Structure formats: structure tokens, C-alpha cells
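Quick note —
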Amino acid sequence: MLAASLFEDLSPHARVATAVLPFVAAVLLRLILGKNRLTRVLISLSTTWFAINVLMAPFSERMQRDILDLRSWFR
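Predicted structure written out below.
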């Protein structure tokens, strides 16, 4: 559970960065190195990492609390 506690302590901007930066890095490598097996695998892995981050974020306690706070702002 150490990894989960590390993500709980991150700010929202840091969470977005951990989701987006691996994908951006993989795309940059693809532009630099061209299409090859390594860049295809890196793009696939980084896309999966991004999807996991986006889909799992609402299940953290902090994110649930933030979502509930947003609801109260729009009332």
C-alpha cells in the first residue's frame, strides 16, 4: 500500500503530470527515433498508464472528497 499512499499525497497538478508525462515522452521518442518496436511498446504502455490513472482517480478518498466539494459549489 506504499504506492497508493504516495499517490494520495500528490497535488492535483502532480497527479496530472504523472499521467501525462510518460505519454508525452513516448511520443517525443517516437518523433526522434521513428517507428520501431520500442516506441510502439512505449506508446502502448504509456497509454495504458494514462487510462489507469484517469479511471482509478475517482476511487481515491481524496478525489471522492474533491468531487463532493465540486457538487456543493454548483448548488
